Amino acid sequence: MIRARAFCVFPEDDVTYPGAPPDTVSLGSLYVRHGRWLRRQAARRFGASHAEDLAQETWVKL
User: Fold this and answer.
1) How far is it, in rounded angstroms, from Cα 39 to Cα 48?
2) Which of 2, 34, 41, 59 has minimal CB crowding within 10 Å?
3) Is residue 46 part of a domain?
4) Has residue 6 been placed in a domain?
5) Residues of the domain holding 57
6) Residue 50 included in any domain
7) Number of domains the chain is built from
8) What's the rounded Cα separation, in Å, for the pair 62 and 55?
């Protein structure tokens, strides 16, 4: 269903929009989406030598 507001069209439930999250979220998709960010943040905070180990431990705990 589509509604119109002041000459603009807004889709009601457009799950195909690129910014919309998928309906089912798996741990693998979260790792792909956020893995680099997590390693980068761990490297900034704890040093590059510990970053990969901390990232892996985080995913195991999830």
Assistant:
1) 9
2) 2
3) yes
4) no
5) 24-62
6) yes
7) 1
8) 11
Distance CA 5, CA 59 (A): 44
Mean pLDDT, the chain, integer: 75
pLDDT for residue 26: 81
pLDDT of residue 41: 92
43 pLDDT band (50/70/90 cuts)?
very high
Maximum C-alpha span of the chain: 55
Measure the CA angle with vertex 5, ends 14 and 20; round to 5°: 20
Buried b (16+ CB within 10 A) or exposed e, 29-45: eeeeeeeeebbeebbee
Residue 40 CA to residue 52 CA, distance in Å, equals 9
